[in-house]
Design brief:
An eight-stranded parallel beta barrel has the order 3-4-5-14-15-16-17-18, surrounded by eight helices. The protein has 575 residues and is an alpha/beta fold. The protein is built from 19 helices and 23 strands. Helix content is 33%, strand content 21%. It has three domains: 234 residues, Phosphoenolpyruvate-binding domains (TIM Barrel, Alpha-Beta Barrel), CATH 3.20.20.60; 85 residues, Beta Barrel (M1 Pyruvate Kinase, Domain 3); 124 residues, Pyruvate Kinase, Chain: A, domain 1 (3-Layer(aba) Sandwich). It is an enzyme of class 2 (transferase). Pathway: Carbohydrate degradation; glycolysis; pyruvate from D-glyceraldehyde 3-phosphate: step 5/5.
Length: 575
């Protein structure tokens, strides 16, 4: 077995003021350049650099750097770590204190779409045990009764679970353009002529209806029509007042109600349809945690939805799905208005050249991280596991890339909704994410995250709490009601777990989406010290920390708890 090298170093006395900027951090704290940074150096030049407020830090402990070669034969604890990396256990038995080797808990969260394969009580429990953090309901399929059943089951699980919480995400259908019903599937061959019409009820061997009245106006001669994201393609040859005549380029079997895209164009439909508003009201009534809004083209859509939620007194966060060509020029304003974004690569790759998708994925993740927003990478992550028990090696690499780029969550769609191996798919995603995270150097910050939180003293404390966690090898404990401080710490990506204690069930569920956050529900006492003691005891009893281990306890954020508005502090405590 190859030799494992463990490096331990603590910088000697830090007596000069330091800055949060990457320019002022020691070179050893920086990650090696990523593949993307080498391929796309021009993008990094355009990113702004942010300087953080200076703060004098004195380190009481110092030790020379040492490189200790070890192997599993030399130390049984290394073997335990290797088992953890293979996904054989989520919680380790090794302390994460200052002198111990690190333990690994998966930080990247997993979103599972619930469908016919997984909409039973037994399967939702098993998905949660396998690693699901967010349950997604796709409103393009099923009805309110079937989704109500899933919501009730997830809430039942959350009520029974002592140390886990599953968030609920409602994904709107959006303005999809679909073909009409056919009596039986039609086989289209290259070179064949085929017609789409806005006349209702047409379904013959050479013509089918489209559910969008402006379809004829939106397409032009020479446009490429894609069926189901590119499974079939047709080029527009001519059009009349109510029909579009095409020639088949890539053939296949055309079934009823197939999704249609025009390469490089978006339909001139409202992002939130009447059906979507009905579904949104359904979500408000059921107090879901997140909306994933389809085909968002501009920030106005997000403002409109947030104003509606405010009028309903609904505490639901809005995730925008970036999947249309029209959304790309407005990326910054859309993401600024939202609470996070989903890289919906299916429709994005249909409306734009597919070679642009990985570049856009990296850019969207970077924008979200710099703005302090959640980001989810979705579509085709383990597509082959819908029918096969093992993934392709390319799919494994796809998961690893999303994790390395800094995504908060990765998503399964058909794999868990109607696939044959939903539990295996979740376990593969868990294992690959866990293994990838173990190779990532902690503490690399987005280049301008300080811009978002610069008006909050909490931002500086989150930065220094992260530096402390990375230097001492500790986990971080935070107490929150709104979730603000836990989310802020998450975007700084400390190397240790963020244990976020809250006395609000809704906050606990929402935090389940954020990278590195382990949300724990606990009633707070009026006395701060009593609450701190109970929290550390709970962590120790559940095996999340060990006696003698050090943790960083942060008291900061928008809403003061056991402190004055002007007082913020970080403590290092021994369990």
């Amino acid at each position: 077995m190859s030799q494992v090298v463990a490096t331990r170093s603590i910088h000697s006395s830090l007596t000069r003021p330091t800055s949060g900027s990457a320019l002022h951090r020691p070179p050893t704290s920086l990650k090696p350049p990523t593949f993307a940074s080498k391929v796309l150096p021009q993008q990094s030049k355009n990113r702004c650099k942010v300087r953080y407020p200076s703060c004098r830090v004195n380190a009481r402990k110092s030790a020379p750097a040492e490189v200790v070669p070890v192997s599993p034969a030399d130390d049984s604890k290394i073997e335990e770590e290797l088992q953890q990396l293979r996904g054989m256990q989520q919680l380790g038995d090794i302390a994460v204190g200052m002198w111990s080797k690190p333990t690994f808990r998966r930080k990247t969260k997993i979103v599972c779409t619930i469908g016919p394969s997984t909409n039973t009580r037994e399967m939702i429990w098993k998905l949660a045990e396998a690693g699901m953090n967010v349950a997604r309901m796709n409103m393009s399929h099923g009805d309110h009764a079937s989704h109500q059943k899933v919501i009730d089951l997830v809430k039942e699980y959350n009520a029974q679970s002592k140390d886990n919480a599953i968030a609920i995400m409602l994904d709107t259908k959006g303005p999809e353009v679909r073909s009409g019903d056919l009596p039986q599937p039609i086989v289209l061959t290259p070179g064949q002529e085929f017609t789409f019409t806005i006349r209702r009820g047409v379904g013959t061997a050479d013509c089918v209806s489209v559910n969008y009245d402006d379809f004829v106006n939106d397409v032009e001669v020479g446009d490429m029509l894609l069926v189901d994201g590119g499974m079939m393609s047709l080029v527009v040859k001519s059009k009349t007042e109510d029909s579009v005549k095409c020639e088949v380029v890539d053939g296949g079997e055309l079934k009823s109600r197939r999704h249609l895209n025009v390469r490089g164009k978006s339909a001139t439909l409202p992002s939130i349809t009447e059906k979507d508003w009905d579904d949104i009201k359904f979500g408000v009534d059921n107090k879901v945690d997140f909306y994933a809004v389809s085909f968002v083209k501009d920030a106005q859509v997000v403002h409109e939805l947030k104003n509606y939620l405010k009028s309903c007194d609904a505490d639901i966060h809005v995730i925008v799905k970036i999947e249309s060509a029209d959304s790309i020029p407005n990326l910054h304003s859309i993401i600024t208005a939202s609470d996070g974004a989903m890289v919906a690569r299916g429709d994005l790759g249909a409306e734009l050249p597919i070679e642009e998708v990985p570049l856009l994925q990296e850019e969207i993740i970077s924008i979200c991280r710099s703005m302090g927003k959640a980001v989810i990478v979705a579509t085709n992550m383990l597509e082959s596991m819908i029918v096969h028990p093992t993934p392709t090696r390319a799919e494994v690499s796809d998961i690893a890339i999303a994790v390395r780029e800094g995504s908060d969550a990765i998503m399964l769609s058909g794999e868990t909704a109607h696939g044959k191996f939903p539990l295996k798919a979740v376990k593969v995603m868990h294992t690959v994410a866990l293994r990838t995270e173990a190779t990532i150097t902690g503490g690399q910050l987005p280049p301008n995250i300080g811009n978002v939180f610069k008006n909050h003293t909490s931002e500086m404390f989150a930065y220094h709490a992260t530096m402390m966690s990375n230097t001492l090898g500790t986990s971080t404990v935070v107490f929150t009601r709104s979730g603000f401080m836990a989310i802020l710490l998450s975007h700084y990506r400390p190397s240790g777990t963020i244990f976020a204690f809250t006395d609000q069930k809704r906050t606990q569920q929402r935090l389940a989406l954020y990278q590195g956050v382990c949300p724990i529900y606990m009633k707070f006492s009026e006395d701060a010290e009593e609450t701190f003691t109970r929290a550390l005891d709970l962590l120790q009893k559940q095996g999340m920390v060990k006696a003698g281990e050090e943790v960083a306890l942060v008291q900061s954020g928008k809403q003061p708890i056991w402190r004055s508005q002007s007082t913020h502090n970080i403590q290092v405590r021994t369990v």
